[in-house]
Amino acid sequence: MDYNTNREKLILPEYGRHVQKMIEQVKLIPDREKRNEQIRAVVSVMAILNPQVMEQPDYMHKLWDHVQIIAGFDLDVDSPYPRPTKEEFAAPPDVVPMSKEPLAAAHYGRNIQNMVKVIAAMPEDETRDAMIKSMAVYMRQQYLIWNKDSVADETIFKDIERLSDGKLVVPSHIHLESVSDKEKFSRPGLILQTAGNHNRNQFRKQGKNKNNRNKWKKQQ
Description:
Elements: H1 16-27, H2 32-49, H3 59-71, H4 86-90, H5 110-120, H6 126-146, H7 153-163, H8 189-219
Helix pairs in contact: 1-2, 2-3, 5-6, 6-7, 6-8
């Protein structure tokens, strides 16, 4: 039996073994014109087998690069694009910069720590208060993951003030018990989305009240 484990390793598996074999056969064609003709046909087949690559900008350039990668960078054909080198693809990726700032509260995570700073820099208005409330609800959920006992609102509010270095003080009218049980957040990014939804709901409510007043006037 001819098992895949005994075969030559696939260089780009998304194109399959047949494409790799076709490129190997093209490399053996002695006539340059015939070789150019056949490799253009192989590129067309690759686009059909991997259609998602056509959604990317300059996808033909990428396909011709993939041809050279599969061929081992030694396919001598007239490519419409500069032939890539092995060194280009062997270069290590850029190092992703990591924040070296220590976490003030590990049970909340770095996203909440950054979000506190963003909200603290915002002007004091209803949107800011809505974001504070949403963030506090999420922080309470994260707190209860580490500590299964109930947590007081004041504990969460003090943590917000501590994480913001005293720049963000929770307004006295905010109480977490008044937040609906349906208002749950699985990630900090929903805090901004919730604030936006809060504003949209306010506009919709105002528009609905205005329409009701107009209907009442017409009935009179």
